[in-house]
């Protein structure tokens, strides 16, 4: 069954779905977690008992309906249970990014007024304690991992298991109150509050109702025929809406198992062991995996390299057609089967993607070359387009209609329209309730008829009905000569190369495009080792003449590709420099979901921008950086600026004619 329909009309909250799953599939696995190298498993019946025990413990602590409870940490069953337990008593879970700095957490804790925080470990506890004086409403902190906390003041610090045990002990006198609150949960009550990434300013609290999450989960699960037998790996930030809809919304609707890796460092190993059937990753994960593949191939024997490149050529030509059920000659099918045995199968197994039935990428645009590479392997990777405000899904790609240049058709129940200025608008049952404490932004984003402004520019193709996203509406502009400027299009092409980790292209209103580039330390470091190039730091490697030569060749290859697009040929990169540091969320240059903050980067590196457009051959700069322990420092560097070869194109005015 694609999803369970028994009593669907009464499933009006996540705790109601939990009860249904415990009844229908009590012995089926609901969660797995790898700890100390061993996978532990909990059934749906055991999961319900764990969540109820915590919910009773929270009642014992006096958590009231409508209160906000912050949840901080990496993916663990206990923290997912925490969010459902909070919902069960009528309160609202607010997951926070575990890698956020203390001052970022301070803003969210003050904004939502959380009185109670559930934290994973000492690191998160220390952050909360460090800002508690600025949060007058804060009273209680529950911790999961006791390591390092023995000598802390435990007056308002409680162990997760202790809260559960207290809840179990008080089931007799609190059970009735829990049942009452659980029964009162309505479809339009708040399910979760998730904060936006804050690309252009302070994060906003997005209020999502049970209706938003359950209707979206139900429609999207039906779209891809998700069943109780799916396996997913929960490794992306719990504060991100994508993880919430996949690991709670769809998981509780379809009843499938959520697997939590031991740590970020073991994620790839854990992925191979689980071999999920339903998989999501943002473009940066697929880019990183492709980088590792290319590094390994460069270290392989000449024979293996020839086999790889030969069969990948077959795969690019044949693989997507086989996936889409299109006609393929018997000879090509035979070649592809041989490639599956020799190359594709072992490669997918190494990546942990050998059992993927449905794979998605979203969050930002993925480079078409990267997208096509995975589909060529026979992995049913598709794109979706979504937002926190939409409970994720706005568009999806149906099987047989998957393309790298579109994000698909409207998801079930979603309506889309394009404004005169090209901005995409949508409305659906998943549309958010409001921005918490921000009525003005709510009115600016969602009108009285429920239409939401995405902030993205795009158009719907005639005939296919597929949506094509050009770029962020605020980032799309024109060059000085009137040519269209869409930086993300060029950046994604640059990031296809394993040696390039990040790129920031600028050029709106100017006569040419220039770019900042971050090298990928792993890929370039491996290349340097093979070529006997010594280096002592990222900065030294980034400025090495041979590295600059290599990056220049990549930029010029991208220019040749961009020049073939009549609409965007003016976006070729004329000049570039390789930055002396990686762009970092701790330094404010990226969001916690690794989206580029263009305005902040432009202001922070204004001297570099002026040098690029001023014709200088090099530029001296000093930059403040944040170290892992929170200390600030400054790094100094003299950066070489390179001119890249561009392909002559017709002027925009003539091209338009």
> Which second-level CATH architecture of the domain at 13-205 applies?
3-Layer(aba) Sandwich
List low-confidence stretches: 1-8, 652-657
Mean pLDDT: 91
Total helix count? Answer: 22
Largest beta sheet: strand ordering: 4-3-5-6-7
State the separation between the terminal residues, measured CA to CA: 55 Å
Query: Which term fits the overall shape?
Result: globular
Number of strands: 28
Radius of gyration: 26 Å
CATH superfamily of the domain at 13-205: ANL, N-terminal domain
Main beta sheet: 5 strands, parallel
Helix content: 25-40%
Q: What fraction of the residues are assigned to beta strands by DSSP?
A: 15-25%
CATH topology of the domain at 13-205: Rossmann fold
Computed structural class: alpha/beta
How are the SSEs ordered, and which strands pair?
Elements: H1 14-24, E1 29-35, E2 38-43, H2 44-60, E3 68-72, H3 77-88, E4 92-96, H4 102-112, E5 116-119, H5 122-131, E6 140-143, E7 157-159, H6 160-169, H7 171-184, E8 190-195, E9 205-209, H8 210-223, E10 231-233, H9 241-254, E11 257-260, H10 267-274, E12 278-280, H11 283-298, H12 302-323, H13 330-351, E13 358-361, H14 368-376, E14 381-387, E15 392-396, E16 409-410, E17 415-418, E18 423-427, E19 434-435, H15 439-445, E20 452-460, E21 467-472, E22 477-478, E23 484-485, H16 487-494, E24 500-506, E25 513-519, H17 521-530, H18 538-542, H19 545-563, E26 573-578, H20 598-604, H21 606-614, E27 618-626, E28 632-643, H22 652-656
Parallel strand pairs: 1-11, 3-4, 3-5, 5-6, 6-7, 10-11, 12-13, 13-14, 25-26
Antiparallel strand pairs: 1-2, 8-9, 9-19, 14-15, 15-16, 17-18, 18-20, 20-21, 22-23, 24-25, 26-28, 27-28
Helix pairs in contact: 1-2, 1-9, 2-3, 2-6, 2-7, 4-5, 8-9, 11-17, 12-13, 12-14
